[in-house]
Amino acid sequence: MKILHALALSTILSASLVLAQAPASSKPAAPAAKTAKAAPAPAPSAADIASAKAKGLVWVNLNTKVYHFSTDSTYGTTKNGKFMTEADAKAAGARAAKAPGGKSAKTPPSK
User: Fold this and answer.
1) Which of 12, 43, 95, 108 has a 20 to 30 A CA-CA distance from 62?
2) pLDDT tens across 89-103, in order?
3) pLDDT at 26 over 60
4) Cα diameter, the chain
5) What is the chain's Cα-based Rg?
6) How far is CA 82 from the centre of its chain?
7) CB of 47 closer than 8 Å to CB of 20
8) pTM listed for this prediction
9) Strand, helix or coil for residue 101
């Protein structure tokens, strides 16, 4: 009986030594470039916003995929966005921002 206890104890100890030497995770570490988020572009200047309004561009929030017309208070102000045409915004999968009343915002009248 003592031999069986000694055998069991040695098996447990050898298994724990093997586990102690095994790496903590079997998955390889992901490269830092893939896990890091790209830094948002700098906020557009007042001149950039005025130029985009004159061209009839919308402001697309790249995080939420929502675009804002020039009449919207958040036009050109979200942290991560860019100006593009409404057609390009729709092609990129963005939708129009909702108006304060909960309805979809409408395209501003053309000049």
Assistant:
1) 108
2) 999 999 999 876 555
3) no
4) 97
5) 29
6) 15
7) no
8) 0.57
9) coil
